[in-house]
Each structure stands twice: as C-alpha cells, then as structure tokens.
Specification:
The chain is α/β, with parallel strands linked by helices and 570 residues long. It is built from 18 helices and 24 strands. Helix content is 38%, strand content 19%. Helix 3 crosses helix 4.
C-alpha cells in the first residue's frame, strides 16, 4: 500500500514539473515566433503597397462622367426635380426611375454636392455619399453579417477577439450608419431582398438602428461604455435615401414609395446619344464627325453603350494610325458588337385611307408613335388585329410575369360596336387592323385611333396625315381620358406632327411639346378633326351614318348633303 502511494506522488510531481518546463519553453520561444510573424506581416504589407502602386488607365466611362448637373444630357427636368428635393432645410428621400445608362447615379452624386451649398441645408460640407448595389447586398439570416443595416458579433463566433473572450457582444455598423448625415444611394433598389427592405423601412422611420443580443448583459462592468450606449440608444442612421431602379413604380413596395418622392428619368434620344459620343471622342483626343456620331446615336441603347462604342472605335483608329474616328471604325464596332438600330416608326407624309398615327407609352415612360392601318374586305363584321404582341414576358429580380394585350383588343371591339350602332356598314365587311413592326400595345388608349381608322376604311375617305391621336372610346361614343399624354405629345412633336387629338379631360395637363392640342369629348369631334385638312380642298369627308346620332354623341350639326361639318379646332 505504501509503495502505491509513493508511485502516485512521484507521478504527480513528474506531471507538475513537466507542465512547468513546457510553459517556460513556450515563454522563451514567444519572441522568436513574434519576430517570425512580424516578418511575414512586413512582407505582406510590402506586397500590398506594391500592388497599390500599379494603376491602369482610367476607363473612358469614368473620364466622361459629368462634373456638373448641367452636363447631364437629356435629363434637365429630372435633374432639377432631384436638386429641389434634396436642397433646402428639409431634404426628402427619393426614388429615381429610368432605364440603365441615363445618368441616375451621377445625378445623385452631384445633387448632394449642390444640396450642401443650398441655403438652410442640414448637410454638412463633409456629408458622405455611400453607394451600394442592392443586387449584391449579402446578409445572413442569423444576423451574423449585414453590410446594409449592421449586425452584432456575438462571443460564440470565430474571431470575436478579446471582448468576445470576455463574453461581450460587439455591434458592427452597416452602410446606413456610414451614411449618417449624408446620402445612402441604393442602385437597383427594386431588387433588394424583402427582409432587407423591411429592415430598411424601419431604419427610415426611426433614423436609428436597434441591436439585440442574447449575450448582452446591461450590468456587466467588463462591457465597454460605448457598447452599453449602442444597445441602449441604438446606432445613428439619420440619412437621406436615394434609390434608383429600372423597374416600374408598381413593382416597388407601396410602403417604400409612400416614404419617398418619385422622379422619372427618360430614355435618351439618338441626338442626345450622339452628343455623348462626340464628348467621349473629344476626351480621347480624336475627331468624330456629326454624321458618324449620329450613327452611334442610332445604334446605342444608352449613354454607357455610346461611350463604349467610341472607346472601341478609338482603339481601332489608333491601331490604323488615324487621328479621327471614321465611318469604317463605327461600322466595325456595330458589326462586332451585334448592335441593332433603334426602331423609329415613320409617319405618313400624305393623307391615306385607314392610316392613323396612334400613340403609346413604353414601360420606361417614353412616348412612342405607332402607325396604324386599317383595310376592309367583304365579310360579316369581324375585326382582326395584327402587329400586337400577344404576350410580353417581363423579367425581374423576383421572377417573371406575362402581360397580355387583351385590353387593346377590347378597345377595338368597342370601336367596332360603336361604328355599327352609328350606322356605318361594318356588318358588310371584315376589318383588318395592323400595327406595323410588332409592338406590345396594351391598354385602351388606342381606341379613338382605331375608330378613326375603321371609319375611314369603311367609307374610303382619306385621313389627314398631320395629326396623332390618343384616347379611349366608349361604346356610346364618348372619348375618355388616358395616361401618359405628356410623353405622347413629345413623341408626336418629335415625329413632326402638327396636331394632337386628345381627350378633353387631359387638356389641363402640363404639356411642353411644340404641338397644337385639339381636345375632344366625342368620337364625332375626333372624326371632324381627323379630316379637317381635307375640308378646305373639298375632298371627301366621313359621311354621316344612316342612323340619327344622339346629341350627346354628335355635338356638331349635319350638313344638308349628309356630310358632317368640319369642326373648328380649339
């Protein structure tokens, strides 16, 4: 028994002595390890600095970025609205809608700089501009990491450091806090994850980020004072949000839209893209003629594409030893990049039977001229519509959806029913309506145009070629208001048309196009105005229908020979 006790004591002493000497050896080798680690750190630092000294040339798209608000091409109205919303003592949150490559990001940066100089502004000269792409905002559902809102690094996570070893949770700020006192710009905000969107809305409401952690102990004296303050009062996040998106307004959450002012940037026109192309050519020190710049404008889809086309053409010109960008280089870029020309529907240059200039608005809010043609054939009163895209697939960050053109077909049926009720010989013929080019027409706003085209075809009466028309028509002949009239008026004026027939209810809208407005209340007024150009020359006009027209539908009296008098345009 005594021997066993002695053996146990000896073993214990041996273990204690071994542990002691092991610790002593570790302590003696610590400086050597630190020196080795420091040497590696110095080598990594030198390598990082060496990498930072390597610079490529600045991309041309960065060189031509506007330096002033006035330099942004084609967005004068949107730029002014953005500056007004951010300037002054009460700046607001903003949503900017528009296609890619039209200057949304650049306008947001410059708007903050202009706001800093405005009278009574709360923005300090050092107000930050924090930019993030909403499509790339990665977050962890367990709240381990959240670069947008911020997160808490709990002690259980790897790399918690000395504070974590002491059981202290550590708040980590996100972009909303870095933007405190300035602007947070979220590009493609419509693609933000719904969870992140809800968090962002809460921050916009409270102007502070609240953190929670099961490991936080308000009575723990080992927790630094600033961490106690963050858990009690939150992290500051008082900023102004500027969200940019290529989506339509209805695709964004109503809760977000209700907190923001909405501004629309339009697609750039070919002439504006040509100006951007010439500015890019000047930046690289090469000449670009007006004709070649116009060619770029016809093929480029936006300002970024125009600059990229010039950059590639400039490289080809330099390889060939030329000091100017010529048509050969532009054509080579177009063929190499498989660029497609912008479709510009041509208006009629002479009165034609069944030919009407209709109008529409694209998803980007751009007005479109839609030539419409109608032809009659012997039949039994059927109507056929071609050129309308039956189903248009719209892709987005949250899946795809289909848009059907059923409303446009319903508008044609309404117009046909109206003509039959007014006594036109629609039951003796089949009518074929065609929109050349194939366009995704939707909505009832082409109803008046369809009625004019069908009435012209049924009576073989030419329609004037100097006007465009928009408006919904009811089966009783009333012309009802439609949307997008301002953009449609611009498209009509751009096509060189002189008159715009529109619903009287839309006449009070602000329209800044150089075109004569002709408001109408009934389809008979529209018929009269559509053939006003032929009245003076005595050419044939739409004859009065066989049946009597109610006064509410036909405010103009009928001539003795059965023809309707031409109405004086307002």
């Amino acid at each position: 028994m005594l021997m066993n006790v002695i053996l146990i004591v000896q073993l214990t002493v041996t273990i204690v002595v071994g542990v002691y000497f092991y610790r002593q050896m570790r302590a003696q080798s610590a400086p050597e390890r630190a020196a080795q680690s420091g040497g590696k750190a110095q080598a990594d630092w030198r390598r990082l600095n060496a990498l930072r000294r390597i610079h490529l040339s600045e991309p041309l798209s960065e060189q031509v970025r506007p330096a002033r608000m006035e330099d942004i091409v084609g967005q004068g109205e949107g730029v002014e609205a953005l500056r007004a919303v951010l300037s002054g003592p009460n700046p607001q949150h903003v949503l900017i809608y528009g296609p890619p490559g039209v200057g949304k990001t650049c306008a947001a940066r410059l708007a903050l700089e202009a706001a800093k100089r405005s009278e009574g502004t709360p923005f300090l000269p050092t107000a930050p501009f924090i930019e993030m792409d909403a499509t790339c905002v990665r977050f962890d559902e367990r709240a381990i990491a959240d670069p947008l809102i911020g997160s808490v690094h709990d002690p259980i996570y790897q790399g918690a450091g000395q504070l974590g070893a002491n059981g202290v949770p550590q708040p980590k700020e996100g972009a909303v806090t870095r933007a405190h006192g300035g602007v947070l710009f979220l590009d493609e905000i419509g693609e933000l994850h719904p969870t992140q969107m809800n968090k962002l809305l809460k921050v916009l409401e409270d102007r502070v980020v609240r953190f929670e952690s099961a490991y936080y102990d308000p009575n723990d004296t080992a927790t630094p004072r600033w961490i106690h303050d963050v858990f009690h009062n939150g992290m500051p996040a008082d900023f102004r949000l500027i969200g940019a998106t290529t989506r339509a307004p209805e695709d964004l959450p109503p809760a977000l839209r209700s907190r923001c002012m909405e501004i629309f940037f339009r697609a750039l026109e070919p002439g504006e893209l040509a100006r951007i192309a010439q500015g890019a050519a000047q930046r690289v020190g090469l000449e670009l003629s007006d004709g070649d710049a116009a060619c770029v404008g016809r093929y480029a889809g936006n300002g970024r594409e125009a600059v990229n086309m010039v950059q590639m053409a400039a490289a080809i010109a330099r390889q060939n030893g030329r000091r100017a960008i010529g048509a050969a280089e532009i054509r080579w870029v177009i063929d190499c990049g498989r660029y497609s020309p912008r479709h510009e529907p041509a208006r009629a240059t002479a009165p034609g039977i069944g030919a009407v200039n209709a109008l529409a608005v694209s998803g980007a809010g751009e007005g479109l001229l839609l030539p419409l043609e109608a032809v009659k054939t012997p039949g039994c009163g059927r109507v056929t519509i071609t050129g309308i895209v039956e189903e248009e697939e719209l892709a987005g960050g949250h899946g795809k959806k289909m848009r059907r053109a059923s409303m446009a077909r319903s508008a044609a049926e309404n117009a046909l029913t109206l003509l039959k009720s007014l006594g036109y010989p629609a039951r003796d013929f089949d009518l074929h309506l065609n929109f050349p080019g194939g366009v995704p027409v939707d909505g009832p706003s082409a109803g008046v145009a369809m009625a004019i085209a069908m009435a012209s075809a049924l009576q073989d009466v030419p329609v004037a070629c100097d006007f465009a028309v928009t408006g919904e028509v009811s089966v009783r002949g009333q012309v009802l208001p439609v949307g997008g009239v301002r953009a449609k008026a611009r498209a009509a004026a751009k096509a060189g048309l002189k008159r715009l027939i529109l619903p009287a209810a839309n006449a009070s809208e602000r329209i800044d196009a150089d075109i004569r407005l002709c408001p109408v209340n009934s389809i008979q007024e529209a018929f009269s105005l559509a053939l006003e150009a032929d009245a003076a020359s005595g050419a044939g006009r739409l004859r009065a229908p066989a049946r009597e027209i109610p006064a509410a539908i036909a405010p103009h009296p009928l001539a003795a020979n059965g023809s309707q008098k031409a109405a004086d345009a307002p």
